[in-house]
UniProtKB/TrEMBL annotation:
<dbReference type="Pfam" id="PF05493">
    <property type="entry name" value="ATP_synt_H"/>
</dbReference>
<feature type="transmembrane region" description="Helical">
    <location>
        <begin position="308"/>
        <end position="328"/>
    </location>
</feature>
<dbReference type="Pfam" id="PF03446">
    <property type="entry name" value="NAD_binding_2"/>
</dbReference>
<dbReference type="GO" id="GO:0033179">
    <property type="term" value="C:proton-transporting V-type ATPase, V0 domain"/>
</dbReference>
<protein>
    <submittedName>
        <fullName>NAD(P)-binding protein</fullName>
    </submittedName>
</protein>
<feature type="domain" description="6-phosphogluconate dehydrogenase NADP-binding">
    <location>
        <begin position="6"/>
        <end position="160"/>
    </location>
</feature>
<dbReference type="InterPro" id="IPR051265">
    <property type="entry name" value="HIBADH-related_NP60_sf"/>
</dbReference>
<keyword id="KW-0472">Membrane</keyword>
<dbReference type="InterPro" id="IPR008927">
    <property type="entry name" value="6-PGluconate_DH-like_C_sf"/>
</dbReference>
<dbReference type="GO" id="GO:0046961">
    <property type="term" value="F:proton-transporting ATPase activity, rotational mechanism"/>
</dbReference>
<dbReference type="GO" id="GO:0050661">
    <property type="term" value="F:NADP binding"/>
</dbReference>
<dbReference type="Pfam" id="PF14833">
    <property type="entry name" value="NAD_binding_11"/>
</dbReference>
<dbReference type="InterPro" id="IPR013328">
    <property type="entry name" value="6PGD_dom2"/>
</dbReference>
<keyword id="KW-1133">Transmembrane helix</keyword>
<dbReference type="InterPro" id="IPR006115">
    <property type="entry name" value="6PGDH_NADP-bd"/>
</dbReference>
<keyword id="KW-0813">Transport</keyword>
<dbReference type="InterPro" id="IPR029154">
    <property type="entry name" value="HIBADH-like_NADP-bd"/>
</dbReference>
Length: 378
C-alpha cells in the first residue's frame, strides 16, 4: 500500500508540484492539502481530478493522517512555525518529512534535529526551477540526508515532480541548501546581466530587439524567457509576481551570509540585491525579480516601466511607411514598390507585436501530450 501524503504550502511552486504528484505519483489515497489561505487549497482541489485530493483544516489534522509530509513555504520563520505545529500535532515517529523550501542551511539543520529527535525521518529536498517547470514536472530536486530516507523520498521526484535529481545521500542536510542558495545566485546574476545588456542596447542605439534575438539564439531557455519578460513589460504589469522580490532578496541575503561565513564575497549578488531593493521600494509586494530591468533603466535615466514598447514600435513603423511612400522609385511600378514595401514593414511589425503580446497574455495554455484523457483538465 502506498503511503498517505500531506502537502503544506500552495504557492507558485507548490501548486504545480501537487498537480504532478496527483497525476503521476500513483497515489492510492487522496493527497492531503493545507495552505494558510484555505481558499487556495479549495481552488487547487477543484482543478484536479475529483477524489484525488482532500483539503484539511489544520496542519495537525493532516499530520495525523499522513505518512509523508511535504513542506514548501516562503521564508525561514514561516517554515519554523509550520514545523512547530507538526511537532505539537501528534506522534510523528516513523513519518518522513520532506522539506522543499529555500531556507538558510542552519535553519534546515535545526529543523532536522527537531524532527529526528522525535523519531521522524528527514530529507532536505529543495528544488530548482520556475513555476512553469513545476507545473510541467521538469524540476531538479536536491535530496540530502540518510541514504535510506533519501531512497524513501526518490519515488516522488524523478519522473513525477522532477526531470532529474541530485543525490546527496548520507551528506549533511545543510549541503542541499548550500547548493540551492548558490544555484539561485546564478539566477540573480543572469537577470542582472540581461537587464544591464538591454539598457545598454537601448541607450547606445543598438536596439533591444537585436540583443533579444542574440539571446534567443545563444541562450534559449531561462535567458530568453527573462529577456521576453523584460521587453514585453511583464516585469511590471503582472498582478502576482513569479519570483517575488522579497523572496529573491531573502535568497540573496542567505547566499551573502553563507559567503561571509566562508570568508568570501559575492559582489555580483550584492549588485543584484541593491537593484532588488529599488524594485521593492518601487513596486512593493508586486515586485518581481525581473524588475531589476526597471531599476537599471531608472539608473540610466529611463522610466522604470517600458509601457510604450508596442506604441513606440508603431510610431517607428509608421515613419518607415511614410518614408517608403515618399522614397519609392518613380515610374510605372511605383505603386507596386510602395505596396510591397509598406506591406512588408507592417507584416513584420504585426508579427513582432503579436508575439510579444501573446507571451505577456497567452490565449492558449500549453498542454502536455502525454497525459491520459482522464487526467486532462482545464
Amino acid at each position: 500500500m502506498s503511503p498517505r501524503l500531506f502537502w503544506i504550502g500552495l504557492g507558485n511552486m507548490g501548486r504545480g508540484m501537487c498537480k504532478n504528484l496527483v497525476e503521476k505519483g500513483g497515489l492510492e489515497e487522496p493527497l492531503l492539502l493545507f495552505n494558510r489561505t484555505r481558499q487556495r487549497s479549495i481552488e487547487l482541489s477543484e482543478q484536479l481530478p475529483a477524489g484525488k485530493t482532500e483539503v484539511v483544516d489544520s496542519i495537525a489534522a493532516g499530520v495525523a493522517k499522513a505518512d509523508v509530509i511535504f513542506i514548501i513555504l516562503s521564508k525561514d520563520d514561516v517554515v519554523e512555525a509550520a514545523a512547530d505545529e507538526i511537532l505539537k500535532a501528534s506522534d510523528i515517529n516513523g513519518k518522513l518529512i520532506l522539506e522543499c523550501s529555500t531556507i538558510h542551511p542552519s535553519t534546515t539543520a535545526r529543523l532536522a534535529k527537531a524532527f529526528t529527535d522525535r523519531g521522524a525521518e528527514f530529507v532536505a529536498a529543495p528544488v530548482f526551477g520556475a513555476p512553469a517547470m513545476a507545473d510541467a514536472g521538469q524540476l531538479v530536486g536536491v535530496l540530502a540526508g540518510p541514504a535510506a530516507s533519501v531512497q524513501r523520498a526518490r519515488p516522488f521526484f524523478k519522473g513525477v515532480m522532477a526531470r532529474g535529481e541530485i543525490d546527496m545521500s548520507d551528506e549533511p542536510y545543510e549541503k542541499a541548501l548550500q547548493l540551492k542558495l548558490i544555484g539561485n545566485t546564478f539566477i540573480a546574476n543572469m537577470v542582472e546581466q540581461i537587464a544591464e545588456g538591454h539598457v545598454l542596447a537601448e541607450k547606445s542605439g543598438l536596439g533591444t530587439q537585436y540583443l533579444h534575438q542574440w539571446i534567443e539564439g545563444m541562450f534559449p531557455g531561462p535567458y530568453a524567457a527573462y529577456s521576453t519578460r523584460m521587453l514585453s513589460g511583464d516585469y511590471h504589469q503582472r498582478e502576482y509576481p513569479l519570483f517575488a522580490v522579497d523572496l529573491a532578496r531573502k535568497d540573496a541575503r542567505h547566499a551573502m551570509s553563507l559567503a561571509e561565513a566562508s570568508g568570501t564575497r559575492m559582489r555580483n549578488v550584492e549588485t543584484a540585491d541593491a537593484h532588488l531593493a529599488q524594485v521593492q521600494e518601487h513596486a512593493g509586494e508586486r515586485g518581481d525579480i525581473a524588475g531589476i530591468y526597471g531599476a537599471v533603466r531608472k539608473e540610466a535615466g529611463l522610466k522604470f516601466e517600458n509601457d510604450w514598447s508596442v506604441i513606440i514600435g508603431l510610431v517607428v513603423i509608421s515613419a518607415m511607411c511614410v518614408a517608403a511612400w515618399i522614397l519609392s522609385p518613380k515610374g510605372e511600378n511605383q505603386v507596386l514598390w510602395r505596396s510591397s514595401i509598406i506591406l512588408s514593414i507592417v507584416s513584420c511589425y504585426l508579427m513582432w507585436a503579436i508575439t510579444f503580446l501573446a507571451q505577456l497574455h497567452p490565449l492558449i495554455e500549453p498542454r502536455r501530450s502525454d497525459l491520459r484523457k482522464e487526467f486532462i483538465h482545464h
